[in-house]
Design goal:
alpha+beta; Growth Hormone, Chain: A; 5 strands; transmembrane; cell membrane; transmembrane helix
């Protein structure tokens, strides 16, 4: 085949694989993006923190089962082929996402609501466990060895682009309705779940037209495919050693850096910095947009100088700078620093009166809106109690929320979140090629999928949940949630620096 023909083939392979994988990530992440709203719909009222933790636990459950999906679908992919297996995972993921959007809320069906969502979330996790390994393997087996990092790095962009798409769709829906309409039981927050079925339909159509991986087809025609990929992957000492090395020397650290730079950062902007919905999302959108090309750059660079030190350097910089960066975000979003600025407007509105049972008392929710000449602003919400018998007012604690940063500070925040995602591109851009090159073709799908999904699904996926849990437990340190990813990345850096090779011998595995 001519170089032009080969180029057309690999372009189609990358496009078809990347589109489907991006849609799967979109499906998986809209749940996390809407965790705060979902917590109010699928759990009883009364304890917002417990409801959010329960929602994040369901979110984390989808990550925890990803290794099992890697085993199930990895085995299918090594026996029956890459194409048919990750076509199946796409259908399962899209169907589960669509059905989450159809589950009635807690007020309608009670405890069945969170249980149904948990079941569908587990199916999502299993499907994603089989998708990534198939897509990465499929692209790698079409790519020449000396450009494998570059070609597989396009697949690496899909996780971030899926997040970008999820944020974009949610923002589009949110900007076209008020808060009450968006957050109601059958409100706008469900639209992104329903939208996924259209995306999946397009991707299935494209993937149906794809051919099987040439390396796997050759292996199959020669009768050399694995009869029991799980046994070959994990009972053979040399291969199992590589699985463990991949997990503890590379993917574990990559996973926590990925989720800290994107999910923990977004949660931090919303729940700790208390930025308003639009600014917290657009900061993430701009940072993702600017950082995404670096997945390709570091994938290309890994073909030139090796994968190891690019990934480990990304971990090391993250370890050293996480707390200073998040400390700056917290400090500069403190509204006490804005007090001396000129005020352009300030209003106080009583937005709700809620009777307290049969006591005669009334809860009065008051919102004070402040706007400064610099463009900064915020809302201060306070719930006071009007004592029925005496008409005395018991003052509640004021909560500052929906902060709007001035333009100069807004772009500084974007720059810092960009740095967090740049670390992600360093650790994530080369890792698909790194994992593919560790294992033989006959058991590649199974062997590479397991460490990837334990590293990302378990160690990485638990970052938001453990972060919130630590913050709830150790309330004196608002940055305490960062110690988990810092510790995991540090351990991974040490193991990787000592035991990982910088260059894999392609001849052994191909």
């Amino acid at each position: 085949m001519s170089n032009k023909g080969e180029g057309n083939v690999i372009t189609r392979v990358i496009a078809a694989s990347s589109l489907g994988t991006m849609i799967e990530w979109y499906d998986f992440y809209i749940f996390g993006m809407l965790a705060k709203t979902i917590s109010t719909e699928f759990f009883p009222e009364g304890n917002a923190t417990a409801a959010l933790l329960s929602t994040l636990a369901i979110f984390a459950a989808g990550f925890i089962v990803r290794p099992f999906g890697a085993l199930v679908f990895g085995r299918l992919g090594d026996i029956f082929g890459r194409k048919s297996t990750f076509l199946l995972t796409l259908v399962l993921m899209g169907g589960s996402t669509f059905l989450i959007g159809l589950v009635p809320g807690y007020k309608t069906i009670g405890i069945a609501a969170p249980l149904l969502v948990l079941l569908l979330r587990l199916i999502q996790g299993l499907a994603l466990g089989g998708e990534y390994g198939g897509a990465a393997t499929y692209v790698a087996e079409h790519a020449p060895a000396n450009r494998r990092g570059y070609f597989t790095s396009w697949i690496q962009t899909t996780a971030t682009l899926g997040l970008f798409l999820a944020l974009g769709v949610i923002m589009l829906v949110k900007m076209n309705m008020n808060d009450a309409a968006f957050n109601s039981e059958w409100g706008g927050w469900r639209y992104p779940f329903w939208f996924s079925i259209l995306l999946v339909g397009v991707s299935v159509y494209i993937r149906m037209k794809m051919e099987e991986s040439p390396l796997f087809s050759k292996l199959k025609s020669e009768g050399k495919t694995a009869k029991n990929p799980l046994k070959e992957s994990f009972s053979h000492k040399a291969n199992f050693k590589m699985v463990l090395l991949a997990l503890f020397g590379a993917v574990m650290g990559q996973g926590v850096v990925w989720y800290t730079g994107q999910f923990y950062a977004q949660s931090f902007l919303e729940t700790k910095a208390m930025l308003d919905f639009e600014q917290s999302r657009t900061i993430m959108l701009w940072a993702i947009l600017f950082a995404t090309p670096f997945f390709i750059f570091f994938g290309w660079l890994s073909d030139k100088i090796g994968r190891k030190w690019i990934m480990l350097l990304g971990m090391l910089i993250a370890i050293l700078t996480y707390r200073p960066i998040f400390s700056y975000l917290l400090e500069k979003s403190d509204t006490t620093a804005w007090q001396g600025q000129a005020v352009t407007s300030g209003t106080v509105d009583i937005v709700k009166r809620t009777p307290v049972g049969h006591t005669g008392d009334t809860l009065i929710t008051t919102v004070q809106s402040m706007q400064y000449a610099t463009g900064a602003g915020y809302k201060q919400e306070r719930v006071d109690t009007l004592i029925g018998a005496t008409h005395q007012v018991q003052m509640g604690k004021a909560i500052i929320k929906d902060k709007v940063l001035p333009a100069d500070l807004y772009w500084k925040f974007i720059g810092l979140v960009f740095l967090l995602i740049l670390y992600v591109t360093m650790v994530y851009g080369p890792i698909a090629a790194f994992l593919v090159e560790l294992f033989p073709i006959r058991i590649r799908y199974t062997s590479m999928s397991l460490p990837y999904h334990i590293g990302n699904g378990v160690f990485g996926g638990l970052v938001p949940f453990i972060g919130v849990l630590l913050q709830t437990t150790f309330t004196s340190d608002p940055l305490v949630g960062l110690w988990y990813p810092i510790a995991v990345a540090a351990l991974c850096f040490i193991i990787g620096a000592i035991y990982l090779n910088n260059k894999i011998d392609d001849e052994v595995n191909d």
